[in-house]
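Before drawing any conclusions, I looked closely at one protein, both as residues and as discrete backbone shape codes, quoted below without any editing:
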Amino acid sequence: MESKLTSRDIAAAYYRLAEMASEAGQLEEGSAELERMDAEALELFETLGEEVPEKLESLRAVSVRLDGEAKLLRAESKRLTGIARRLEREVERVRSYGVQILTAQREAGLPAKLKTSGGTFWLSTHKRLVGPDHISAWSEFGYTKTEIKPDRTAAKKALEAGETHPDFTIEAREVLNWR
């Protein structure tokens, strides 16, 4: 069974071909070194011609599979988050039953505290701020925060329009596409 080239092997072979093309331009026509390089280049081209399309197909298949799994996990995460929220609401509902029992006990003239073999139960008061839904009322009294965070879109548009700033650049990178 013939061993397959790895992605790194394929990339290294192409870099070697580019290197040989550069070196070949400096060699004399008909030299032994040039003939050796031609033979090596032909062998590399033959090997790459067979393996590159297959490797790209394999890479696409792996990428599509991983992307599908990531989407499934995101959906599962969203589903689990929904379940957790429902359970949290259920906790509040069940706790409200305990509040109702102790409140009724207090209204009946009994203490609003009960000790059992499993624990102690009592009522306490927790304070929570309730405010208007509209932000203007919060602003009017100075009860707002200003979050300063980078505006990447504005910075990119400014640099693409020709502005220059010493700490900002637009970095280009190549990505693989397929259909």
